# Entry
Amino acid sequence: MPMPKVNVAQLMSKEMDRKDFLKYSGGVVLAVIGITGLLNTLLKLGGDSHGSGPSRGGYGGSSYGK
# Structure
C-alpha cells in the first residue's frame, strides 16, 4: 500500500489540539522506528555468513587433537 503524500507546510499550518499533535508525532516516531527496524533486519539477513560455521577463537576452534 503506497504511503499518502503529506505536505509538511499544510500540516504545520493546520490548527490542532494537543491530542492531535501527539497522534501525528507518535505516528511519525512509530514509522521511523519501524523503517529502521526493518532495515536492520534486512541488513542482518544479508550480512556476513561467518556466524554459521565454527568460530576460530572459541572452544574447539583449533586443530589441536584432531
